Amino acid sequence: MQITRGKDNIGTYNKTPQSYRKWCKTCGGHIFTEHPGMGLIDVYAAVIPDFPYHARIHVHYQEVKLRMQDGLLKMK
Q: Do 36 and 49 touch, CB atoms closer than 8 A?
């Protein structure tokens, strides 16, 4: 992922080494979360309104209440 503008205005918070939450220092809005151990970045869809969304994986699937039968990879 490459940040093209506003990089200096992004704050980081991590309670654990598993996730680094990124937020806007101006408005406090969530932007994305990095998961270094899994090699994943969660980008909040609201920050890219015209981004074509294609689901590829279910993260933390062991916590689900309604099982998904969609053929996607399910991580525990």
A: no
Q: Which residues contact 26 (CB under 8 A, 6 or more apart)?
A: 9
pLDDT tens-place string over residues 34-60? 999 989 998 887 788 787 877 788 777
Q: Diameter of the chain by CA atoms?
A: 41
d(CA 23, CA 76): 26
Residues ≥6 apart with Cβ < 8 Å to 75: 38, 57, 58, 59, 60, 61
The edge-to-edge listing of strands for the beta sheet with 30-35 is 10-16, 19-24, 30-35, 40-43
